[in-house]
Design goal:
Radius of gyration of chain A: 13 Å
Number of strands of chain B: 12
Number of helices of chain B: 0
Number of strands of chain A: 11
Order of helices and strands of chain A: EEEEEEEEEEE
Largest interface: A-B, 30 and 28 residues
Oligomer: heterodimer
Helix content of chain B: under 10%
Strand content of chain B: over 45%
Distance between the termini of chain B: 41 Å
Strand content of chain A: over 45%
Number of helices of chain A: 0
């Protein structure tokens, strides 16, 4: 498609459950970012890929969070043993090359109950 | 490191009135500046951006923002708002390096337009 696609759109997880969130970036986009947006807040950086290389994961809040992009296109953000504080919208963004603007997906709203 | 401050969490305004959403940033390096808009239950959409050149940038739907380096500001303005402009607006910056770098966002300003 023409945009960044994220799935699922909504996810409800029981506390302690593992979840996997998918991001399908725009074809040919080298850079891919994950952000976490808590309710009423601005997005916060989680991690960044350039092709398949994860160049920055400084924003991942704990070792329960793991992201991968094995073939340099689709990326998966995995959260293990989910906690209530993980409830947020997870946004994916991609960019062709430079830092001058990114295209965001519609996000995955994760609710941990 | 960069930081972004959006001074107003909510801005109520009547339709057809002018509006200004304030954004100030802090950075030790040169930056690119962005405004994104987020409609309910949707992702972020790029509204406009400043990369270089003219300090006044415009969007296709009547918004404009002016980069003021001395005041480290990038305020968003529209001379006459419409009901459909009701949304959350986020100011963001990233390092001006020519390569991809993470965006740092402000906490957002909720623009509420009423009749």
């Amino acid at each position: 498609g023409a945009g960044v696609s994220q799935s699922p759109r909504y996810k409800v997880a029981k506390r302690g459950q593992d979840v996997a969130l998918r991001c399908d970036p725009i074809s040919g986009h080298v850079s891919l970012f994950w952000y976490q947006q808590a309710l009423g807040q601005g997005p916060e950086f989680l991690t960044y890929f350039q092709n398949e290389a994860q160049l920055d994961k400084s924003g991942l809040p704990s070792d329960r969070f793991f992201a991968e992009r094995p073939e340099g296109s689709v990326s998966t953000l995995k959260i293990q043993r989910t906690q209530q504080e993980d409830s947020a919208v997870y946004l994916c963004a991609s960019s062709f090359m430079s830092g001058a603007g990114y295209t965001f997906g519609s996000g995955t709203r994760l609710t941990v109950v | 490191a960069q930081s972004v401050t959006q001074l107003d969490s909510q801005v109520p305004v009547f339709e057809e009135a002018p509006v200004e959403l304030r954004c100030n940033y802090s950075s030790s390096v040169s930056v690119y500046l962005f405004w994104y808009v987020q409609y309910p239950n949707q992702g972020l959409q790029l509204l406009l951006k400043y990369l270089s050149g003219s300090t006044l940038v415009e969007s296709i739907n009547g918004f404009e923002a002016e980069f003021n380096k001395s005041q480290t500001s990038f305020h968003l303005r529209k001379p006459s708002v419409h009901i459909s402009d009701t949304a959350e607006y986020f100011c963001a910056v990233n390092r001006n390096t020519g390569t991809a770098s993470k965006l740092t966002f402000g906490t957002g300003t909720r623009l509420q337009v009423t009749l």
